[in-house]
Amino acid sequence: MAGSTKRDNDDNTLQLLQSREPQLRAQSNLAMPFIEQEQETSAVTRSNDVVYLKKSLSKKAKKRLKCAGIFLIILLIIVFLLAFVGLPVFFMNSLALQRLIMFTNLGLPSEVSHFRKYELKPGLRNFYVSVKDVLSKDVISLGVWHLLPYTFQEHVITDQNFDYDDALLNSNMSVLLYFHGTGEDRSSSLSKYSIFRFFFHVITFDYRNYADSSKNELSEDAVVNDCVQLYEWLTTKTKSRIIIWGHSLGSALATHTVSLLQTKPNVTQPVGLVLEAAFTKMSEELYVHPYGKIFAWLPWFKATILRPLEKNGFLFDTSKNILNVECPVMILCAEDDSIVPYKFGQKIREIAQNRSVLNTTFYYQFDYNLNYDHFFIYQDPFIPYFINYFQFVCTDGRSSDI
User: Fold this and answer.
1) Does position 42 have pLDDT exceeding 80, yes or no?
2) Which of 176, 194, 340, 368 is the S-S candidate for 335 at Cβ 3.0 to 4.6 Å?
């Protein structure tokens, strides 16, 4: 009976499985995609597990890489030799390049019409003064502006035949002779002149080879001699006291001019000298000038840059020439000056205070945070007060050091 019962159970189980076969097959088919997906994922994972094998460069590739490295090194050497050996050597042997660097005059307007158009501004006239070259005796024409003090403004506007010469000759206001910096012309400082005109007749001019002035050989001595002659011409056109103002390179030229005027006892002397953003001498300025600093570290800097300039007379030695200046001096410098560091102004002050002739020396140093840099000291609100007091001292004859 037991055996019969076991067989019956087996038969029942077989029948149950046979009856559920379609359902099991359906479940199996549903599971197949998941199994296949798992297998595919596993295959992808295995494919991502890439094994990188280090393969050495071929001899040909190594040779090309080596040649490229050698070429780059040679190119860098050539660039260095051209920039830091070739240029200094070329500068040392090229007087024309030395003149161009010392007297930067490229790109300045040279048409007479450019300077005449400013005559539309009330109180400004454009004209030309002839001087003689000391060596060649050539006649050189210097472009000049005369800007009237504002006190004449109404007369100029209402009188079409206003006489500038008479106003300059008989005015009770002082005259300011302005020396601009290199890379500038007489039309570059109109905003500065607008301050000056509260106190002075302003006479400003262009050096030889600048703007519309005559083209002739440039040297420090030649330009300064032109300036001396222009000053002498001015003394014949006015009875007023004359103050000279120089900016940057113009400060060096102005100081040299006053130094030479002191040797001419028959010439009416200037009553004051203003030095704005002045340097001591060119050989010291080149070490700190943005362009000079590029080469100043070179061992051959003196031999190829400084000595040739000195040999050809480009000294611009304010620290020496100021010792011969016998009138009051006012020095203006900005702490953030990126072209002429203010320490040069401090040094000039020390030298000026030790002059053999007792005279007034003023020194004004403008804070770094004012952002006046090299060109904008005139914007300081105290400048009119400094000018007014300096003019008073120059005309009253008082002496003190400030």
Assistant:
1) no
2) 368
Please tell me the predicted confidence (pLDDT) of residue 205: 98
Q: Stretch 50-77: mean pLDDT, rounded?
A: 79
344, exposed or middle or buried, with CB in 10 Å at 0-12, 13-18, 19+? buried
SS3 for the chain is CHHHHHHHHHHHHHHHHHHCHHHHHHHHHHHHHHHHHHHHHHHHHHHHCCCCCCCCCCHHHHHHHHHHHHHHHHHHHHHHHHHHHHHHHHHHHCHHHHHHHHCCCCCCCCCHHHHHHHHHCCCEEEEEEEEECCCCCCEEEEEEEEECCHHHHHHHHHCCCCCHHHHHHHCCCEEEEEECCCCCCCCCCHHHHHHHCCCEEEEEECCCCCCCCCCCCCCHHHHHHHHHHHHHHHHCCCCCCEEEEEECHHHHHHHHHHHHHCCCCCCCCCCEEEEECCCCCHHHHHHHCCCCHHHHCCCCHHHHHHHHHHHCCCCCCHHHHHHHCCCCEEEEEECCCCCCCHHHHHHHHHHHHCCCCCCCEEEEEECHHHCCCCCCHHHCCCHHHHHHHHHHHHHHCCCCEC
State how beta strands 200-205 and 139-147 pair.
antiparallel
- Please, what is the Cα angle at 71 between 67 and 77, to 5 degrees? 150
Q: Name which of 55-69, 111-125, 170-184 the model is least confident about.
A: 55-69
Q: What tokens does 236 get?
A: 């014949």
Q: Is the pLDDT of residue 196 over 60?
A: yes
CB 337 within 8 A of CB 360: no
- For residue 132, pLDDT over 70 is answered with yes
Q: Distance (Å, rounded) from C-alpha 273 to C-alpha 262?
A: 13
Q: What is the mean pLDDT of residues 287-310?
A: 93
Q: C-alpha distances in angstroms, 290 versus 286, 340, 362, 368?
A: 8, 9, 28, 18
User: In the chain, pLDDT over 70 holds for what percent of residues?
Assistant: 85
3-state secondary structure of 339: coil
